[in-house]
Design brief:
It is a single chain. The chain is an all-alpha fold. The protein has helices spanning about 5, 10-20, 35-45, 50-70, 75-90, 100-115, 140-155, 160-170, 175-185, 190-210. Helix content is about 65%, strand content about 0%. The chain is elongated and about 55 Å long. About 30% of the residues are buried.
């Protein structure tokens, strides 16, 4: 991938358009409220501003998903660029059978698995909500929250790759079972089974680590 091919992805016009401010391009005023499907149709015609807005909306989510799958920030960055380069080149192939965000995660997953054939460990660094300090917390409470977050992250890394993927898609990305099935390429009932056993295993790990009251 060349610098010229990816230059438009980080163009400041993306952020301005996504925020509703003038990007200096005719027709940009409607971009903030334009649906993903319409943006993708415009991308298919070579509309760079539409591509910039689509990138601004979704690149963080794609990057974080790639990071969870690969455990490597540099690899995740490369994957993110590759995913959106594919979108730029192949937007016309989107058939609208799923949400654009689901389609993007499916592309990301496909690319990630092809790049990490020999990798067996995946990091889940973004499950840090439990470690965010409340201004009202005293030092003891803040430390307890950080310790809890560290335990949760450690337990997540002890799950199998399949189970980690289910927890990530369902609870972080808040995808429905049908959307997860579309992303992973498995039947809905298989998704439900994996989610059930992933939650059960995670609950057991958390309870063994001293975090009680976790529902399976």
């Amino acid at each position: 991938m060349t610098t010229n091919e990816t230059k438009f992805l980080s163009h400041p016009g993306a952020a301005r358009a996504a925020n509703g401010t003038k990007a200096g391009t005719v027709g940009s005023s409607d971009m903030p409220t334009t649906s993903d499907d319409v943006l993708l149709q415009r991308v298919a015609t070579g509309n760079r501003l539409a591509m910039q807005v689509l990138y601004a909306r979704h690149h963080v989510r794609v990057y974080r998903f790639a990071l969870r799958l690969t455990g490597n920030p540099a690899t995740a960055e490369d994957l993110t660029s590759d995913v959106f380069l594919d979108v730029w080149r192949q937007a016309g192939r989107f058939e609208g059978r799923s949400a654009v965000s689901t389609w993007l995660l499916a592309i990301t997953r496909l690319k990630a698995f092809s790049m990490m054939r020999r990798r067996t460990e995946q990091e889940l660094d973004d499950y840090t909500a439990a470690t965010i300090e409340d201004p009202a917390d005293n030092p003891e409470v803040a430390l307890e929250r950080k310790d809890r977050g560290a335990i949760v992250r450690r337990c997540l890394t002890e799950l199998s790759a399949e189970h980690r993927e289910m927890i990530d898609l369902v609870y972080y990305h808040q995808k429905s079972t049908q959307e997860v099935a579309d992303i992973v390429g498995i039947p809905v009932n298989t998704v439900k089974t994996r989610v059930y056993y992933a939650r059960k295993r995670l609950s057991a790990l958390l309870q063994a680590a001293g975090i009680a009251g976790v529902a399976a």
